[in-house]
Design goal:
Layout (H helix, E strand, L loop, with lengths): L8 E3 L3 H11 L5 H20 L4 E7 L4 E7 L3 E7 L3 H10 L4 E2 L1 E6 L6 E7 L8 E5 L2 E2 L3 H12 L5 E4 L2 E2 L1 H10 L4 E4 L1 E2 L2 E2 L5 E2 L5 H6 L3
Parallel strand pairs: 1-12, 4-5, 4-6, 4-8, 8-10, 9-11, 10-12, 11-13
Antiparallel strand pairs: 2-3, 6-7, 14-15
Helix pairs in contact: 1-2, 2-3
Bound molecules: 1-O-pyrophosphono-5-O-phosphono-alpha-D-ribofuranose (PRP) and uracil.
């Protein structure tokens, strides 16, 4: 459920999620263990997000008889924000294997903390799809807000955002810029430091995922 301050933010209250956030926070966790914890948390997020997906009825032939079945009513499009969002794709596809995958490349300028776009590619017909933006870190909110703006410009009408760690500053910005977008997160952290890093956080998610520290 959303809190009173951030009604659009739904925090996962799953024991396995709490355990794996601790793995991510640990400065001694190496890339391989980091990536697998991100993948497991992403699967838990995918289960929570897909809870209210609409289905439509179909028929399926079993080895014995024809019976009722279901398919998803809407195309699902996952859109990871490069680079760190890539780490979440596998865990989402484990749960939603038919999803299509777009990509948005954004790099935060270390001085201004503003995101710069360097890549954009999404499937056609975003308008009729349910789009899930993936980025483990919601810090100032500049990157995720920009990504959602880009998706809306390309026709998306039904967007959600899945992150792992959120800062209050980022949730505030998302609430102001995109009040229609629900955010699913694994943890709400305390604050940003003066370099725009989340505290207590887990450091630079892209570098820890890909071993570029
Ligand atoms: C990180 C992270 C988010 C962004 C969050 O990416 O993965 O995309 O910062 O910060 P914000 O909310 O203040 O915009 P970064 O720009 O470091 O790129 P990287 O994933 O390639 O390392
Ligand atoms: N991006 C990260 O990867 N980590 C933070 O704490 C903030 C932005």
């Amino acid at each position: 459920m959303g809190s009173r301050k951030f009604p659009n933010f739904i925090q996962l209250e799953h024991p396995l999620c709490k355990k794996d956030i601790t793995v991510l926070r640990d400065v001694n966790t190496q890339s391989e263990a980091f990536r697998s914890a991100v993948r497991r948390i992403s699967s838990l997020l995918a289960v929570a997000i897909s809870q209210n997906f609409k289905v439509k009825k179909t028929k399926v032939q079993t080895p014995l008889e024809l019976t009722a079945g279901y398919t998803l009513a809407q195309q699902i499009v996952l859109v990871p924000v490069l680079r760190a969002g890539l780490g979440m794709v596998g865990g989402f596809l484990d749960i939603i294997p038919d999803a299509k995958v777009g990509h948005i490349g954004l790099q935060r300028d270390e001085e201004t903390l503003k995101p710069k776009q360097y890549y954009y590619k999404t499937p056609k017909n975003l308008k009729a799809s349910k789009v899930i933006l993936l980025d483990p870190m919601l810090a100032t909110g500049g990157s995720s807000s920009q990504a959602i703006t880009d998706l809306k410009k390309r026709g998306s009408k039904d967007c959600m955002f899945a992150c792992i760690v959120a800062a209050p500053e980022g949730l505030q910005k998302m609430r102001k810029d995109h009040p229609d977008v629900k955010i699913f997160g694994a943890m709400l952290d305390r604050q940003l430091n003066d370099r725009g890093y989340i505290l207590p956080g887990l450091g630079d998610a892209g570098d820890r995922t890909f071993g570029t520290l």
